[in-house]
Design a protein that fits this description.
single chain; mainly alpha; about 85% helix
Length: about 150
């Protein structure tokens, strides 16, 4: 439906699909760590028989995997792939004459891409939260617009 509504055929359509799939997998990888790995680490860490050495090893595993999966999920999935996907969708929306959806999408994409500044040490948990919330409102507005135009 998105492809037809925005006329996303050919290379642009393939790019939207690729970016969407990459964003989804990266986000899922970041989230899955909390569902599968972290509860096991927490249980092992708080086990009464855990030695200080075992707890130290668990801390290393926790820190390393949290940094890795968090980086993939938040930086690549949320920041980069979803941000670029939003730009491509916004360009297509503007081509269709959906001005406010297009420009709002550029704003949402800018917020998502701003989270990549954490790579150089500029971190803002508030910006990360706001970018996600505003992006979700934008995707809702996009869905409503597509539904109304269909």
């Amino acid at each position: 439906m998105l492809r037809d509504a925005l006329g996303l055929y050919g290379a642009m359509g393939r790019m939207v699909v690729a970016l969407g799939v990459l964003a989804g997998f990266a986000k899922a990888f970041g989230i899955v760590r909390w569902l599968f790995l972290m509860p096991g680490l927490a249980a092992a860490y708080t086990d009464p028989s855990a030695t200080p050495e075992t707890q130290a090893a668990i801390e290393v595993v926790y820190g390393a995997f949290n940094a890795y999966a968090g980086g993939v999920g938040e930086l690549l999935g949320v920041g980069f792939f979803a941000g670029v996907w939003t730009i491509v969708i916004s360009v297509a929306a503007l081509r269709r004459g959906w001005t406010w959806i297009g420009y709002a999408g550029f704003g949402a994409a800018a917020l998502l891409l701003s989270t990549l500044l954490s790579v150089v040490g500029i971190e803002s948990p508030l910006m990360l939260t706001l970018s996600g919330i505003l992006w979700q409102f934008w995707t809702l507005a996009l869905a409503i617009t597509i539904w109304r135009k269909a």
